[in-house]
Amino acid sequence: MIDPTTENKTHARIIITPSKTEKNVKTHDKITLMCKTSLQATRPDSLWRSRPFRSFYSAQVVSYFGDSMLTLALPFLVLQLTGSGILMGVVGMAETLPLFLFAIPAGLLADWGDRHSLIIMADFGRAALWILIPVSLWLNHGVMITILFVVFITSLLGVVFNSAYLGSEQALWPTSQLNFVNSYIEAGESAAYMIGPVITGAMIHFWSITVPLILNALSFALSGSLLRKVIPRSPTTPLSSLAPSWSSITKDMKEAMSWIRKNSLLKEATILWAFHRLIFASLIPALTYLVIHSFHDSSPYLGLIITLYAAGSLVGTFLQPHTPGQWPLWNFVAMALSGIAACVAGLWGAIPWVLMASIGSLGCSEGYILVYYLTKRSMESQPSLSGRIYSITAGITQGFGSLGFLITGTLLSLLGAPQTWDVMGTSALLTAAMFIISRWGKTPETDLPKRPS
Hints:
By secondary structure, the chain is an all-alpha fold. It has 16 helices and no strands. The radius of gyration is 21 Å and the shape is globular.
């Protein structure tokens, strides 16, 4: 996935936004140099010798562990409360809609404001909000309304977090290491999902569904505490210029849109991941619906299935950066394999070992495609536009994901789980065929990125 045209001579370059506050700039320079000089080697194991990377990685894994528990607990709770596939889709939309609606303001905020403060605020804010759901359960009042509110606002804070982090990424890690940074982070997420769902299933079965919800809130608090020591403070735009005209905002966004449109690899990776989100964003709710309606006393078994999905994703994240040639065609093959696995799950999902193998294959394909998309988004972004590029690409992909949640939830209620899985698989196969046909006759040597001037 490392593009052959990428130069490695930028490792020690400091990427900062001009600021009138000299003290803030010097502090930013010092922290950035500390992060980058500890990662000068091109070998991937040099990442683990970097204390900032170890701290950042620990914060991410802790947060992912909380997310993994929520992935099982939240759909299970909604299905227990309502029994409705459509409402599961509505909750999924509430999770992805903020990226579609607020990605552009969040990207501008990340480019103008102090990214350190935005990241810490987002983590501690999410920690406080997730506590509200256990409280509503204890009070037995307004649970579904609370769920929708918390999911929407925490997702909005997640948009702010990701915009701010992407703006700091190239300043924290050398360009030559971004592939491995993304691979390790996604592998850490997969590892967390291998442990979290099994533990969550046991917690729900033996204790209460409120326990994983509380632990999820605590994971964000711990993540925020760790990141305070890692993310450097970035120079901010003076307060007098924080209220630009609409024409100025439009000009800024057009600049980022032009960069994406003229960069062939970034554009293609974004479109591919958008289609993947459209089809498989609601995979976990659809899986929950399938397992609960097919197996008795299903919470431990559901946790095991999600763990196998995470294990497959872990394999995919490790395979991606080591694929010979790093040609995008392999990602289209991965999409086709996702389609086959989804069709198999729909046809023979009542057989436990078949369902386990299918979900593991889906996880592997998703991890593979996701690392490619994340790395291309990092490597092909101009640092001064990174926040806006994130907001646009994430808005597109998550907008497709929101639509996917609504469609899948509706299909689950109208058709049932097996038929919905068959529709998902067929859609993935058609998408893979479309991309493969568009690439027919092209070779890795002719697939160099068309970078805008």
